[in-house]
Every structure is written in C-alpha cells, then in structure tokens.
Design brief:
The protein is an alpha/beta fold and about 325 residues long. It contains eleven helices and 13 strands. One of its GO terms (molecular function) is 3-oxoacyl-[acyl-carrier-protein] synthase activity.
Length: about 325
Amino acid sequence: MGVQIIETGKKVPYKKITNFDLEKILDTTDEWIQDRTGIINRYICTVETTTSLAIEACQELLKENNINLSEIGLIICATMTPDTLIPTVSANIKKNLKLNHCIVFDINVACSGFLYAVSVAESMMKNLNIKKGIVVGVDLNSQLVDWNDRGTAIVFGDGAGSVLLSYEKNNDSGIISTFLDNIDDNENSLTLKNSYCKTPFNNLENELEFFKLKMLGPKVMKFAINAINTSISSVINLSKVSLDEIKYIVPHQANQRIIDAAAKNLKIPRDKFYINIDSYANTSAGSIPIALDELNKSNLLKKGDYIILVGFGGGLSFGAILLKW
C-alpha cells in the first residue's frame, strides 16, 4: 500500500453562529434548518483567513509528533477560497513551517478537493519517493454565500482540516484503492463566478449578486446521493475488502438528508457513517478532514480498521478513498 495517514489536524474560526443567530437575519427557524439539513451550528471567520486557518491546521499535525521536517517534501492545499493567488496558500504554509526543498501547490475541486489532493499526493509520493507529505483542505464559504439567500446561507461554514501522510514501500497500512470521477453540470446546479472577470471594459450588472454562490438544492441533492452510492461501490469493487469489513465511512458533510438517503440506498447502517454536520455545517474542502480528525481524536479508530472517505462537489466531481488505518 505504501502511503498512509499518520496524523490529523483541524482548525475552525473562533466565532460560532447558531441557527438562532440566523433567525435574526433570514426568514428561517432553527427547526426548519435542522429538519432540512441537520445543521445546528457553524463557524464563521471574522479575523481569520484561509491561510491562517490552513497554517494552524498544519501546525497541529506536527506539535505532538517527533517528525523530521526535512522529510516533508510535499504540501497540497485544496481550496476554492484562497486569500492570495500569488503566492499560493500552500507556499505560505511552507514558509510558516520553515520547510526547505518542498513541492507546494493549490488545487480547486470545490468540495471534492481534499479527496483529489490526497490522491495526487499519494501518486507523487510514490513516484518521487517523498517520505512525508501534508494535505490540507480549507475554505471560507462565508465569503461566497449570499447572506440574503436562505438556500445557501444556512448550509455553509468555514474551516480547515489536514492530514500528515507517510510513505514506506512495505507498509501494510494506508490507501488501498481510489475512485474519482466527474460528470457535466449541464443544469448549472452549482456555480460561482469570480471577480477577476471584471475589467474596466465590461459592464457587469448586479455586480454583488454576480459573484455569489448559486445552488439548485434539489438537483444537487439528487446528484450527491448518486455520487456517494457510485463512489462507495466503485472503491469497494477496486479492492479485496467487503463493505461489511468497513469500520467507518467519513462522508463530505453537505446535508444530513443526503447521507441518510445514501445509507438507505446502500443498505449500510447509518451509525457506520461518521457525521458532524450539526457542529460545523458544510465546510467544503475542509469537511472530510475535519470529520476525520474528530474521528481520530475521539479514539474511535484502531490500527487495521478499514475506512472510506467519500465526497462530491461542484464540477460535478465526486470520488472515494478506501484505506487501512
């Protein structure tokens, strides 16, 4: 197998926003939000940035581990909300951690970003013989949503999650199989324009609205349920592990109803899915690693456990990773 996760970390903003806080600015209620999403709280940045959250999530990986920093040869940051395009968020992480001779880059696959980043990291670490690597997923969704739009404002939160990867050729733990895919978003169910398309020579009407996340909830839900089903089935079929042997499934935390429907369709007990959407809402690329960190730090995993990381996002992208802890 070779590449395994040896440590996890996370960082969320200081400010917690409850459903009752949203009642004050939106036509909604705590009961309505919980019933449709499973969300109770989310964390929203006030002074934090994408880079600061990512750095602190990565620092957590190293604070209790006697890691030779010279072995860290790769940092990949999955984000669609970089606070700087140049330098990249990953370059700023490297600088803060005082690492030398380290490959760094950012990728954007929306909410699927963390899965794609881990897959890329695994391949690079094997091909380039990199001993240690860091993958961080981080997004500040509060900057993207229209806070007058109940359909998106209630769903998202900010946060970062990270993993420390280790590569040893003869390791009997680690990534077993990976499935990644994409289908065309012909109905524009998830879209977000960026402000860089504005120039002095074009005339963009409703400019503020133009640069906000647009989501067609029912269409996204239908896609997401199918994406989870396909990804889990595919990653199992690519391995010699049975679904019954899986200890936990860590899904992208987008909506409680999506996870419940996928579990029902696959005939998987709901308690096999690790769910924390109630506490953090949808943190996009941070979602899966934040949940994985909670699962790990709760001492619910032991060596040899099989787990599946599964997600989906804009594009429309989706996938899963099966690994042995």
